[in-house]
Design goal:
The structure holds 2 protein chains of 2 kinds.
Chain A: H1 2-12, H2 14-20, H3 23-31, H4 35-57, H5 60-77, H6 87-105, H7 130-134, H8 140-149, H9 152-164, H10 168-175, H11 179-202
Helix pairs in contact in A: 3-4, 4-5, 4-6, 4-9, 5-6, 6-10, 8-11, 9-11, 10-11
Chain B: H1 11-19, H2 26-38, H3 47-56, H4 58-79, H5 93-113, H6 115-129, H7 135-166, H8 170-183, H9 189-198
Helix pairs in contact in B: 5-6, 5-7, 6-7, 7-8, 7-9
Classes of the chains: A mainly alpha, B mainly alpha.
Chain lengths: ~200, ~200
């Protein structure tokens, strides 16, 4: 009897439960032939992935190219996230690797592989009051310029934090960087962005 | 140690999320979704669908048809009644012989008790007694009876004639003899009577 009730509730609540499913179960459903599951998965991550690639590459054309390659490789690979990796980590890992491959293929200098002294770029900025935050620039071009002014490693961590919604441990796993380094990069990135955006408002 | 979990109030991150307006172009969305639908694996059919597909293949159709045929034959064999009355048109000697014998004895007894009308009654009584049988069966019994009666019953009746003649009842003897002539027109009653008288 309870099984029948469960079946009926699944029948009538199919769409809702579909949307409430985890990324991993949606991908598994897609691998079994459920095209609608992929649409939900794509709708969840399309914006964040695109903004991450756009911010990291600094080029619309390159971002679009890598974005397309990432999704198509996911569609065609037939594989699943391995181990403890979530779908989100896996997706952004694919995109990041594709971008690095593109830079390597075209002989472009890979900014994220620079030896980088975190401390030299760290400016003390202990101010974090609401008034300063309210004065941050809302101009998208200025926001973009401030992002591009960040060192690549800091920018990558900040973009992952902003658009992938991964926690710091996941970002550390994805970038194969120690957790403490990730924390410091994020902190320095935030300090510089606050300063740059506040300065932009003042000027 | 700093908590690795994202801080819920991260104003700068929130500010960037709110202000960022870049979106993937529509043509990329369409291209990716079309590729996803085109290259989605075909759903695995369930057991019922696989069975239906198997039924549509010729070799399985033959196999299933054969199986159904055998099942129907078995069902028919199982439902057939064990003993049905046989409607053979050929005479059944084993069944008719005892009946003929019985009828002959009955006829003899009746002829002894009532000489003249007994035989026709016996003949006409046969079909009535075998009421569950067909007319053919009754005729067969009659034929058998006619074959058996002259052997014994005729001699006895002729002895009765002799007995009546010896006892001085000539009229009754003549009447019985005349009756026997009618009943057995193909028999040489005179010769048979003389033979009996000699014995």
């Amino acid at each position: 009897m309870s099984g029948l009730k469960g079946f009926i509730s699944q029948l009538f609540a199919g769409a809702n439960s579909h949307e409430a499913s985890s990324d991993e179960s949606l991908l598994a459903r897609y691998r079994e032939g459920d095209g609608a599951a992929f649409e939900i998965l794509y709708a969840r991550h399309r914006q964040g992935l695109y903004r991450f690639l756009l911010g990291l590459s600094g080029s619309t054309e390159l971002a679009e190219e890598v974005y397309q390659e990432t999704w198509l490789s996911l569609i065609r690979s037939g594989s699943q996230p391995q181990g403890r990796a979530t779908f989100r980590t896996w997706l952004f890992q694919i995109a990041r690797n594709r971008l690095i491959d593109h830079w390597r293929k075209h002989g472009i200098h890979q900014p994220m592989h620079d030896s980088y002294d975190e401390q030299t770029h760290a400016l003390t900025d202990e101010q974090n009051d609401p008034e300063q935050l309210l004065s941050l620039s809302r101009d998208s071009q200025r926001l973009e310029a401030a992002l591009q002014a960040l060192p690549a490693d800091q920018r990558e961590v900040f973009l992952l934090r902003a658009y992938s919604d991964l926690d710091l441990a996941q970002i550390a796993t994805l970038t194969e960087t120690p957790l403490e380094t990730v924390k410091s990069r994020l902190r320095y990135a935030q300090q510089k962005l606050r300063r740059l955006l506040a300065e932009e408002v003042l000027t | 140690m700093t908590d690795a979990r994202p801080t819920p109030q991260d104003p700068l991150v929130k500010h960037f999320r709110e202000q960022s307006q870049s979106e993937p172009p529509a043509h990329l969305d369409a291209l990716i979704l079309a590729a996803a639908h085109r290259e989605a694996p075909k759903p695995k059919p369930n057991l019922w669908q696989r069975w239906l597909r198997a039924c549509q293949q010729p070799r399985w159709q033959v196999a299933f048809a054969s199986l159904v045929g055998v099942a129907l034959m078995l069902a028919l064999v199982q439902r057939t009644p064990e003993q049905l009355p046989s409607y053979d048109f050929a005479p059944a000697p084993k069944a008719a012989a005892p009946l003929a014998k019985k009828e002959a004895e009955l006829s003899t007894a009746r002829s002894l008790a009532a000489p003249a009308p007994a035989a026709p009654m016996a003949e006409s009584a046969a079909p009535m007694q075998s009421e569950s049988f067909s007319a053919d069966m009754a005729d067969e019994a009659k034929v058998s009876k006619r074959a058996a009666v002259p052997v014994k019953a005729l001699d006895e009746q002729l002895r009765e004639v002799i007995h009546l003649q010896k006892s001085g009842q000539a009229h009754a003897a003549d009447k019985l003899l005349a009756d026997l002539h009618k009943r057995y027109p193909d028999q040489n009653l005179s010769a048979r009577l003389k033979a009996l008288q000699k014995n």
